[in-house]
Specification:
Layout lengths: L26 E6 L19 H6 L4 H12 L5 E6 L7 E8 L5 E7 L6 E6 L5 H14 L5 E6 L2 E6 L11 E4 L5 E3 L4 E4 L20 E3 L7 H8 L12 E8 L1 H8 L7 E11 L2 E4 L5 H15 L48 H9 L5 E3 L6 E3 L21 H21 L4 E2 L10 E2 L1 H16 L10 H9 L2 E5 L4 E5 L24
Parallel strand pairs: 1-2, 1-11, 11-12, 12-13, 17-18
Antiparallel strand pairs: 3-7, 3-9, 3-10, 4-5, 4-8, 6-7, 8-14, 13-14, 15-16, 19-20
Helix pairs in contact: 2-6, 8-9
């Protein structure tokens, strides 16, 4: 059969010209573990359903606690983990019970977390100190996710950390309540301090993908994670940067001393005050420092996740800010609601002066709002204070500035990669219908991307005619046709955060004249 089909028509379908968005958030947790997972081997995509971390890492291990804290606020964010084997001595704390109960009552005993590891201990009238001590030890041990186990001998409860090493030294041990006839004396006492940290050299070699957040519990040794992220900050032909989060419980003086040796735009350290009272040892905000770090890393990841519901973490009522995405990078972290964290009892915690001194030294804090009703974040800063020459440099001192810069760069990178994935380079005019670029067209593209970043979907850079003109005036695009190289130099006016309001109110005694 002879078929005539004229004219010959061929229509090709090509991809639409759409902008490439920033990649999803992914967080890495590193901590001590004692489960089925092999030490030093990367565990990827830990499920948010069920509690696989309890089997993988041991239910009452440091790493399992970090995973639970992270998942409580960021169940939709992919999370990986590296389990490590602890090294050193386990911390021990003694609670000494004396007397005999002359009335029924109860105590609340906390080990490691006010919210997650507080147990009730009931006391019957007539119970002697040995019975009460045994009841306390049994209640602690019955909490299979608690970071301590306990035993009792002759009225002395010995509380022993599950994880050996330094990791348990900042954890809380406390008793509250009162039963007639029962006395805790002497005061709760740390009899053995935890010593030792895992072997950290090379542990991140298995982490080859990009992690926007890494939770790193060892403030005493951050060199591995700082070097790892520092090498990725301006990676060649890739976007690999991220920020590490760590925490510590210490005195104000010790916190300032530890900050002296830290100077990285890739590291945020959250400090809490160490409290020593007769019936309480631990942080002012009664939660493990590594759990706080994981919690904040989770909230940050949710804020930066496109279309994630983040209203529970905000006090802002602006409609567009109720959902996550790159635009949240420029929204202040301070006053973010730290769900899953307890309040702080009166008389505990940093003073206003101490908070400012810690911030100036590169330390971050969590606290409570003025009403004392919610735990909130303070101004989150990095430990970066000076450039390589030792000169003061405010560029990356706040976490917001780091995140704005990172998200801005990623958007430029993704789209320049996509737009010029297969293009000719010329300094002549562009031929319609052909994939070509010259310095003028590239500058126009970069200006358009800047406009995107100033728009409501990003609000990372300054909007308006004056800002755009500044960007254009300081944008230089040069080409080298011999090597096929395009060089782009630009000054980008970013949005920052409203952190201070200063004003003068003058008293007037008359409204006439």
């Amino acid at each position: 059969m002879t078929v005539i089909s004229q004219p010959n028509v061929t229509l090709s379908i090509v991809s639409a010209e759409t902008d490439v968005q920033n990649v999803e958030q992914r967080v890495l947790l590193v901590g001590q573990a004692d489960g089925t997972a092999t030490a030093g081997v990367l565990v990827e995509n830990i499920s948010s359903s069920g509690n696989p971390e309890n089997t993988l890492f041991g239910a009452n291990s440091q790493l399992a606690e970090m995973v639970r804290a992270f998942k409580s606020v960021a169940p939709i964010v992919p999370v990986d983990a590296i389990p490590l084997t602890g090294v050193g001595a386990a911390r021990e704390v003694e609670i000494t019970v004396t007397g005999a109960a002359t009335a029924a009552g109860s105590y609340e005993v906390t080990v490691g977390s006010e919210i997650h590891h507080t147990v009730d201990v009931n006391v019957a009238s007539g119970d002697a100190f040995g019975v009460v001590a045994s009841a306390i030890a049994a209640a602690i041990t019955a909490d299979t996710e608690a970071p301590f186990t306990a035993s009792a001998t002759l009225g002395v409860v010995t509380v022993t950390a599950v994880d050996v090493g330094l990791v348990a030294n900042g954890l809380s041990v406390g008793v509250s309540g009162s039963v007639a006839g029962i006395v805790f004396t002497p005061a709760i006492t740390e009899t053995v301090a935890g010593t030792g940290i895992p072997v950290l050299a090379g542990v991140l070699d298995v982490a080859t993908r990009r992690y926007q957040g890494i939770v790193w519990p060892w403030v005493s040794d951050t060199s591995e994670v700082v070097t790892y992220l520092g090498n990725r900050f301006n990676a060649n032909n890739n976007i690999l940067d991220g920020v590490a989060f760590s925490g510590d419980v210490s005195s104000h003086a010790a916190a300032l001393t530890s900050l002296l040796s830290l100077n990285s735009h890739d590291l945020v350290v959250i400090f809490d005050e160490a409290i020593t009272e007769a019936l309480y040892l631990g942080p002012a905000q009664n939660e493990a420092s590594y759990a706080k770090s994981a919690l904040f890393a989770g909230i940050r990841a949710m804020r930066l996740t496109q279309d994630a519901q983040i209203s529970r973490f905000l006090i802002s009522s602006a409609s567009l800010d109720q959902f996550g995405g790159p635009a949240s990078a420029s929204l202040p972290y301070f006053n973010s609601v730290m769900v899953e964290l307890p309040g702080i009892s009166s008389g505990r915690g940093w003073t206003d002066v101490e908070i400012e001194q810690l911030k100036d030294a590169g330390g971050s804090v969590l606290g409570v709002n003025r009403a004392g009703t919610n735990a909130v974040a303070g101004e989150m800063v990095t430990t970066y204070l000076t450039d390589g020459a030792g000169n003061p440099d405010p560029t990356f001192t706040t976490l917001n500035n780091v995140d704005v810069s990172s998200n801005m760069r990623e958007y430029f990178w993704n789209n320049l990669k996509a737009i010029y994935g297969q293009s000719r380079l010329t300094e002549g005019t562009l031929t319609p219908g052909r994939d070509m670029a010259n310095s003028l067209s590239i500058a126009t593209t970069v200006e358009r991307l800047y406009t995107d970043l100033a728009g409501p979907s990003f609000v990372l850079v300054q909007d308006g005619e004056e800002a755009l003109n500044f960007f254009k005036a300081n944008l230089v695009v040069t080409t080298d046709l011999v090597t096929g190289t395009v060089q782009i130099a630009a000054q980008v006016p970013i949005n920052t955060q409203l952190r201070n309001i200063l004003g003068t109110l003058q008293i007037a005694f008359s409204t006439n004249g």
